[in-house]
């Protein structure tokens, strides 16, 4: 009987140790973002769950500058926010996609791959609430959130200084890496402490009754 109890207890403690180790050594988890569920304006085509292509310089793009149905209105930006500082006439027209995230935690990270194809002075960008971040190279984009809350995230491309010269922004593999909930680590540590405590308790019981079992 003692052998069975010890075996079960050892296995249970080992499992709890593994659980606690997993929680402590896995600092984040991630999930893919379905780009096909994002809202779009202008020429965003083709689009799938893992990839979206945003175009400028085409018939289906929308104007900038503010006002109803403009890119700034769609992205909840003030007029002129999409004008690059080095441009003469500013942004003229473009396309964008957006999504709202309602439960962002400190340390969450937005990531996606992108390729910006242009032969013009056009501009690709990301908007995080009221901030506009230029995409200047074909490298993965990462953004770490420094405060918790709700965030409006937009991705777009605009013609700059003219309305000709097609450009293309290809976005893929969008992902949100989220920090683990504190309760997950706390719960694992509680379970781990419980397992160690039970092992000590049974060890004391076995030591106290060892002579009686030895006689049998």
From TrEMBL:
InterPro entries: Cyano_PEP, Ice-binding_C. NCBIfam families: cyano_PEP, PEP_CTERM. This is PEP-CTERM sorting domain-containing protein. It comes from Nostoc minutum NIES-26.
